[in-house]
Design brief:
9% of the residues lie in helices and 63% in strands. It is mostly beta strands and 132 residues long.
Length: 132
């Protein structure tokens, strides 16, 4: 495992930026171990929902975790607004960094992750294997 600390910049799309980092590292498997920071725009898909919850305005990232593969990212996050209200869910495209996002990745150079449709769940789920 190779740790990779990152700082994402204002305006970065959280999902897209992490996907680019994985590609730039030439890695096929990684986990997000931790993430904090702030967002100016948040898009979360809540449990069982078909559409996403849009939060436009400043929030703090309390937790961020997930897996990264060449097929895509799977991230979950909890955020808090200025009143302290906390909401969490599946990170979708459109989460824009406000001031910073400090993320710790664990690159797994001996492994490869892929996303494959799983008939049992109805979703593209993580497939784990040794790297060729």
């Amino acid at each position: 495992m190779k740790p990779l600390p990152l700082r994402l910049l204002p305006g970065d799309d959280l999902r897209a930026a992490l996907q680019r980092v994985l590609q730039a590292q030439g890695c096929q498997a990684a986990f997000v171990l931790s993430g904090i920071g702030s967002l100016s725009q948040t898009r979360l898909r809540l449990a069982g929902a078909d559409d996403f919850l849009a939060i436009d305005g400043e929030v703090e990232i309390l937790t961020l975790a997930g897996s990264l593969s060449p097929d895509g990212v799977h991230l979950h996050m909890s955020v808090a607004d200025a009143t302290g209200r906390v909401v969490g869910g599946h990170v979708t495209a459109g989460c824009k960094v406000r001031t910073t996002a400090e993320v710790l990745l664990a690159l797994l150079p001996s492994w490869q992750f892929a996303r494959e449709f799983d008939a049992a769940t109805g979703y593209a789920e993580l497939r784990i294997g040794p790297r060729d």
